[in-house]
């Protein structure tokens, strides 16, 4: 089994409920076990500011699903929960991103692991610190060091 980390985000249609439903769906993925989930955090949107605040979290799983199969399953969950992509970094019912997949580094047209910009995103790093504060990324960087470089953040635990 491979340990993977999944970022969850929503800012439409009762976001907390969306994340809870997504976690239930992740728990039901074949040959996958949900190990832990961070606190839920409210954060400002990364993109256009004319949209509601987000609710974000990170889940730690173990799976035997290959990275692209896991991506397919996560996209199915997004679609099942009514995901519509209106604009880049825009509002969404549900966003599920694979942050890490073991110590793999993957460059594929559909998938980049580690997630291409996770190191700059407090809404990823802070929840990840909740569940794996001693994590070392595939590039050898310690998660705690990344968190220090983010400085203070304006996210609120929900």
UniProtKB/TrEMBL annotation:
Ranges in coiled-coil conformation: none
PROSITE patterns per UniProt: HPPK
EC main group: transferase
Lineage: Bacteria, Pseudomonadati, Pseudomonadota, Gammaproteobacteria, Pasteurellales
Keyword DNA repair carried by entry: no
Domain of life of the native organism: Bacteria
Pathway: Cofactor biosynthesis; tetrahydrofolate biosynthesis; 2-amino-4-hydroxy-6-hydroxymethyl-7,8-dihydropteridine diphosphate from 7,8-dihydroneopterin triphosphate: step 4/4
Entry's family note: Belongs to the HPPK family.
EC annotation from Swiss-Prot or TrEMBL: 2.7.6.3
Gene3D superfamilies referenced in this protein's UniProt entry, alphabetically: 7,8-Dihydro-6-hydroxymethylpterin-pyrophosphokinase HPPK (3.30.70.560)
An annotated Gene Ontology molecular function: 2-amino-4-hydroxy-6-hydroxymethyldihydropteridine diphosphokinase activity
An annotated GO BP: folic acid biosynthetic process
Primary role: Catalyzes the transfer of pyrophosphate from adenosine triphosphate (ATP) to 6-hydroxymethyl-7,8-dihydropterin, an enzymatic step in folate biosynthesis pathway.
Any matching Pfam family: HPPK
Domain 7,8-dihydro-6-hydroxymethylpterin-pyrophosphokinase: 88-99
Keywords on record: ATP-binding, Folate biosynthesis, Kinase, Nucleotide-binding, Transferase
InterPro entries the record matches: Hppk, Hppk_sf
Name of the protein in question: 2-amino-4-hydroxy-6-hydroxymethyldihydropteridine pyrophosphokinase
